[in-house]
Each structure stands twice: as structure tokens, then as C-alpha cells.
Amino acid sequence: MADDATELKTTVLNEVHHALGAKMVGFAGYEMPVQYKLGVLKEHLHCRASAGLFDVSHMGQVILRGPDVAAALETLVPVDVVGLAEGRQRYALFTNDEGGIEDDLMIANRGDHLFLVVNAACKDADVARMRATLEPKGITVKLLENRALVALQGPEAEAVLAEHCPAVRDMKFMDVETLPIAGAECWVSRSGYTGEDGFEISMPNAAAVDLVKSLLSDARVEAIGLGARDSLRLEAGLCLYGQDLDSGTTPIEGGLGWAISKARRADGARAGGFPGDARILEQMANGAARKRVGLQPEGRAPLRAGVVLFDAEEGGTEVGHVTSGGFGPSVNGPVSMGYVAAGCAGDRTALWGELRGKRVPVRVAKLPFVPAGFKR
Questions:
Q1: Quick one: 346 exposed, middle or buried, by C-beta within 10 A (0-12, 13-18, 19+)?
Q2: Per-residue pLDDT tens for 342-354?
Q3: β pairing state of 198-204 and 184-189
């Protein structure tokens, strides 16, 4: 996970992390906090119980403007962008010609433009892809370098943010608004990556430090690092691009068929028309040979990424592998996700993971491991 420290970029909040005593690591080309003094376990549980603040400024914030921009973007993603209402956002996927996933992202309709948030490790490739396809159609693609991004997550997130701007109480899951927070004009979405209710807040770099310090001054809020971010999203059954999703995995294999909008499906108003549509729509109709599933080891030992899965305790057939795994503090036990052959994907199917030369029992489990707390 670590990058060469001599090449790491920093976010505008870097000095805040150091002042809070964060342990810093290289992630997606940036120096980022993996944990603070509280530690990963307590950070995780605090976010589930109250409110956690994450620096996600390393992610790519992109604005698209131009004629028929929604229809143009639909040539790259299998979602309904044309029908996305102003002030709403939608989860989306960039796909390739083989139906694999090049990145997952969020698309927001901001009225006179689209606002996208893409993964840090993919943002240069994503911007290049969009420029190559969209600029010939008169669309401008602008990667913002002057804005920070933080996520405030947890059951107390609304109450905390409402003290700065009461209007957030009226927002529903996936709403997007421009609101004043701690003296800054912010782009606020009610979404996140923890399974909890919460908000993502984009703000000018110049306002980021003061805004973050203001939020952290609330006793209900703790700074949360990448370690707890990973365990929170894993319990919530949410994918990490490059680990659970990649260019060789289709949305149907990844359990993301729900993200293929009705309008873009085989019988939809604008069927297909995105990269890899033939393979993806065929798998929607007939199923895929493998499927992403939740996995719950029966012992206390976590099954982490790379563990091979078998259908028997001895001998048998290799049927899949783990892509994410670790200890789930909220469920007080190990949790994993991975890919298994479709015939082994049924809930509670018994499998065995090979851990240090020994096979340990694991069962297929329904995702998520913890109930979602989104405000619908």
C-alpha cells in the first residue's frame, strides 16, 4: 500500500493530520493518515456510534460542461445520466470494451454542469478517458486542483453539520446542495463510504483547515484514518477499486447489476451504448460464472485478500478467492468479501480458505454485515 515517500503528494490538510498525531502512510500517491492517536478499532466504533471526519481530498473532483453533456457522458458509463435530476447524484462505473470496470465514481447534476468524484489512483486515467471521448463533442473536462474534500460520517453527522447549516436536515440520501458551512461555500452531498448516514463536503482549499478544525472542535467528532475507513466500508459491503473491482471484473460479477440503470438495460429507452455493453447485458440476462459475495470465517482468524477458497476441507476444487478481509469491530469478528463460482454463491454455503497451509471453514454471507443507516 505504501508509496515511495519522496514522490508522495500531500493534501491541504496534511499539517492538521500531523498536528493530531496521525500515523501517515503512502496511499494512491499521497501521504495520508492511516490512524490517529485513538487507534483504528476505537475510530471505527466512534464513527458507528457518533461522527467521524475523513480527509478524502486525494480523490479527483471533476467538472464537465458543454452541450448535451449528460448524453455524452452516457457513452462512457452504463447509468442514466440524462434522467438524473438536478440536485441529485448517482453511483456510476467507467467500463471498458470487455465489460470490465475501469473505476467507480459519483456523478452529480449541478444544473449547468456535471460534478464527478473519482478515485485517487484512477483520476489521471479517468480524466484522459473523458477528454479523449468528450472533448471532440464540445465538452470541457476540468480536474479541480483548488478544492478539498472531507467526509463527515455517522449517526450524529446530521446533528453536527446542522449546527453550521440547518438546511442539511432536509437533505435525503444522494441529494447535493451548495450550502454555507463554517463560513465557506461548500458543495455538500448526503452520501459516504461507511454504510452510515453522512455527508461529503467539497470546499475551497483556502477554507479547508478552518472548516475541519471547526468540525473537530465538536466533542461528537473524531478524525478517522484510512484503517478504519477500510473496516467500515468492508462491514458495509462496499467495494474498494483495485481490490474488489478491477478492469477484468464486470459489474455483474461484482454484484453491481443494480448500478446498471433501467434506461440502459436491454429493454430500456437507451439500451446499451456504453463500453462492453454486449458482455454486460448478456450477463444480466444469463448470469455470470462468478460472483462477489460476503464471507464470514467461522473462527477468529481473518481471511485477507489473496486467500484461496475451496469447496472441501481436503482436496476438492478451487472455487474462488478473497479480495478484502479483516476484523469487523462492529460485528466483533472477522469479515471478508471475495469472488466464488456462481454455484457456490448461495447464502451460508460452506467453503474453506487456505490460510498458512491449513484450510479453515468460512461461509458465504449476505452483504452488508451491518445494516445501512442512510436517510432515504
A1: exposed
A2: 999 999 999 999 9
A3: antiparallel
Cell 475551497 belongs to which residue? 204
Phi first, then psi: what are they for 167, rounded to 5°?
-65, -20
> How much is the average pLDDT of 131-150?
98
For residue 150, what pLDDT is reported?
98
b/e map 162-173, b = 16+ CB within 10 Å: eebeeebeebeb
Q: What does the CA dihedral 228, 232, 234, 235 come to, rounded to 10 degrees? A: 140
Q: What distance in Å separates the CA atoms of residue 264 and residue 309, rounded to the nearest whole number?
A: 34
* pLDDT for residue 1: 46
Q: Is the pTM of this model over 0.85?
A: yes
**Which residue, 345, 352, 284, is CA-closest to 315?**
352
Neighbours of 300 (CB within 10 A): 9
One-letter amino acid at 116 equals L
Per-position DSSP letters for 267-326, written without gaps between them: TSTT---STTHHHHHHHHHH--SEEEEEEEESSSS---TT-EEESSSSS--EEEEEEEEE
**Residue (of 226, 222, 168, 231) closest to 195 by Cα position:** 231
pLDDT above 80 (res 21): yes
